[in-house]
Each structure stands twice: as C-alpha cells, then as structure tokens.
Design brief:
- By secondary structure, the chain is α+β, with helices and mostly antiparallel strands.
- It has one domain.
- The chain is built from 1 helix and 3 strands, in the order E-E-E-H.
- Bound molecules: zinc ion.
- The site of zinc ion has 8 residues, from loops.
Amino acid sequence: MMPYIYRCTKCGAIYYSATSIEYQLNKNCEKCGGELEQLGEEGELMKKEEEEKEKEDRKK
Ligand SMILES: [Zn+2]
C-alpha cells in the first residue's frame, strides 16, 4: 500500500502515514504546529513535481 503524504503548510515538513488525513488524530506539524495538507500518494506527488518542471521550462 502506498503511504499518504502530508506537507506542513507553515514550514514545509513532509510526513508519511498509512492512513488518510481524515483519520489522523494529530493534523498538525510536530515541529511547528502548522496545519498539514494532504498531497496524495507518492506517485501523484512526483507527477505534480514533473508538471511544475514542465511549466518552468515553458517560461524560458
Ligand atoms: Zn511545520
């Protein structure tokens, strides 16, 4: 099973979890207490990054 990925919206820390954010008891960053956002499965995140890179390339 692919892990869920969360990113702190405040400090950018990345967290992995086997459960969806709906079932997380602690929805805040352990480091700074900021709100976590779910990024989806690992594959989705990588795809997102690739899309961002493509956009950057088009700007040049
Ligand atoms: Zn944080």
